[in-house]
Q: What sequence folds into this?
């Protein structure tokens, strides 16, 4: 299945186109396609044990090690103030592809890329591209949020759902707008409790935010705050509230609360970018993926709540996923109409 997804993403890219701060680790190479190892570095805003955003990116470069014989290295928990130094460190060491895994790395990459024209810089959810070597891979965050909100709305009995989001950067704002649009597509009068926590690292703060919305009657909660998301899941575990995992499979973090995950498989876009870099074909543009490319999808239902989810609800969500993949729902128009409230 994974190989099929990679092939589909690669086909989409080809069609569209016709050191460091923080803890690091390295995997030795056995040689790339041309006998010389492709050196790939990954810069992460969080830790690789977040069971989501950062761990998926790590799995992607590990896959590139297996498939291309690439030499890989990563840096965890890199602050925005340090990322330019980290980019320069990897570039000066001869890394051919440097991936900044997050919107917040866009500005630093744009500065450093000018000084290393023979190095590929690629930003996940990036907003800047520049010739000849700065590109971005992006998930359709609006569609992701739409499916997340719709899933929570279908599962809710109280018609009262919540979302805890990290920062209010553009990708997360898109997710929040999509979440509201998706929830109201299912239930126009649903009660929404959405909080921008202001952190991607402080799980204790996110847990506090989660408990506050649970106290308002939320019976289905989701989260999108990188490593800090674990705080929201912990709150659901403690209060017996159903949780919809986001980005990665978060069942292990919430075996008694997580019932399904809306997967955001940005890892496969990184794999596709790595293959293009190995071929010298990674262009200075944005590569965008969504539900149609299987970069966003609903996982199987699981966990202790599985038996409480009716077949009717499961069927409704499967049908919704198919409609989204076929472009039958204009999520961008619906999201533009949504006025997503937030609490600071």
A:
């Amino acid at each position: 299945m994974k190989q099929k997804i990679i092939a589909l993403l690669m086909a989409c890219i080809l069609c569209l186109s016709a050191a460091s701060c923080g803890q690091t680790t390295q995997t030795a190479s056995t040689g790339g396609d041309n006998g010389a190892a492709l050196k790939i570095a990954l810069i992460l805003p969080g830790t690789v044990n977040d069971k989501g955003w950062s761990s998926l990116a790590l799995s992607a470069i590990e896959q590139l090690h297996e498939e291309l014989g690439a030499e890989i290295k990563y840096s965890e928990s890199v602050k925005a103030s340090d990322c330019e130094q980290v980019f320069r460190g990897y570039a000066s060491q001869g890394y051919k592809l440097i991936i900044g895994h997050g919107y917040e790395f866009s500005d630093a990459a744009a500065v450093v890329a000018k000084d290393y024209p023979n190095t590929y810089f690629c930003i996940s959810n990036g907003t800047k591209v520049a010739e000849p070597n700065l590109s971005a891979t992006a998930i359709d965050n609006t569609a992701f949020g739409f499916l997340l909100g719709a899933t929570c709305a279908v599962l809710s009995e109280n018609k009262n759902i919540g979302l805890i989001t990290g920062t209010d950067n553009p990708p997360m704002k898109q997710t929040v707008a999509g979440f509201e649009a998706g929830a109201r597509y299912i239930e126009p009068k649903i009660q929404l409790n959405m909080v921008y926590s202001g952190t991607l690292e402080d799980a204790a703060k996110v847990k506090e935010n989660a408990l506050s919305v649970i106290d308002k009657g939320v019976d289905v909660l989701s989260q999108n705050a990188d490593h800090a998301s674990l705080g929201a899941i912990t709150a659901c575990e403690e209060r017996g509230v159903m949780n919809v995992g986001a980005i990665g499979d978060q069942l292990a973090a919430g075996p008694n609360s997580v019932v399904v995950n809306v997967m955001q498989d940005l890892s496969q876009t990184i794999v596709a970018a790595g293959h293009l870099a190995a071929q010298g074909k990674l262009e200075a543009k944005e590569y965008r993926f969504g539900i149609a490319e299987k970069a966003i999808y609903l996982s199987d239902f699981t966990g202790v709540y599985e038996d409480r989810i009716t077949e009717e609800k499961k069927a409704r969500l499967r049908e919704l996923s198919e409609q989204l993949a076929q472009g039958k729902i204009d999520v961008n128009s619906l999201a533009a109409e949504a006025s997503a409230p937030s609490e600071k």
Summary: The first helix runs from residue 2 to 17. The longest strand covers residues 258-264. Residues 4-23, 25-35, 340-344 have pLDDT under 50 and may be disordered. The CA atoms of residues 122 and 246 lie 23 Å apart.
